[in-house]
Structures are given as C-alpha cells and as structure tokens.
Amino acid sequence: MTKKVCIISTTLRKNGNSELLANEFYKGAKDAGHDVKMISLIDKTIHFCKGCLTCQNTGFCAIKDDVNAIEDVVLNSDVVVFATPIYYYEMSGQMKTLLDRMNAMFPKEYKFRDIYFLASAAEEEDTAMDYAIQGLKGWVECYEKSSLKGVVKAIGVTDIGDIKQHQHYLEESYALGKGI
Description:
Blueprint: E1 4-9, H1 17-31, E2 35-40, H2 54-58, H3 67-75, E3 79-87, E4 90-91, H4 93-101, E5 114-121, H5 130-141, E6 147-155, H6 167-178
Parallel strand pairs: 1-2, 1-3, 3-5, 5-6
Antiparallel strand pairs: 3-4
Helix pairs in contact: 1-6
C-alpha cells in the first residue's frame, strides 16, 4: 500500500548531517514506492507561538507565515519524519518552534499514524538524544492514534558531512524509510 510520507528537515545547515539522514530516509521510502515530500526549514519563515490559543477556536494560527502550509502536508500524511541536529542534548530550536506552532492541528482530524525521528549529534554517548526523543514523544502523545515507530541516533558527527564517515547511520535511515 502506497503511503504519503512527509519528511521535515529542521537543520539550517545545508547538507548538514541530519539532512543527510533525511535524504537517505527519503530514498528508502521512494524506493519502496511511497509518495514522499521533503520539507526543509532552511528557507521557511516560522515565528514563535504567542500562546494566544486562537487556533483552538478557529483551527488556524493567527500568525501568517510558512507553518500553515507545513501543517496541511503533515495532517494529510500517513507518516511524518522529523530530522534534527542535537544541540545541548535537545532538538533544534527551529524544530521545537515548529512543534509549538503546529498547535492548530490538535483539534483537527489527522491521517498520520507513524512518526520517525532522525537525529545527529557531536556527542558520542548513546544517551545524547534522550531528551529530544522525550520532547518529541510529548508531541506524539497529543495525537493518540499515532506512535513513535523508529529512531536513528547518529552520534559522534560534528562537522558538515561527518556522517559520511559513519555509513551505518545512513544505511539505518535508508532501511527505516524502505521499511515503512
């Protein structure tokens, strides 16, 4: 069965390590025959949530930027993938800002059931992504029909392209995409 897959690359570094993970997931999902859309936040304008909760009454955020278009893709996808660099043991600020801003989705119908998380970190401890994973799990729990299905933890990669020296992370990301 063909699935609609939305991959959101939250890094602001072109060809950064988490973006390379996202690209491999994309290739795997495409090779499996799925309809895949990649969204990069590099060229997106995303403002901070103001906490006005207007979205809970209207279904739309009062702030006019690129988030409404991203929400539409996410709501209509079967699979949602977030790729992020890890900073100070947490997801990137732009990813957290996007999650906060997608609050307008909360009362709406949504198709996505499977969530995946791809992360890269300079730290070499296997626990380097634990806080970020917990943060994403908090968002996922707000969507009761969904669950976190897979995680790639690419540790020990700092500079742009370092992940190419750790092919097993790229292969793991490809395999996750291929296996959905």
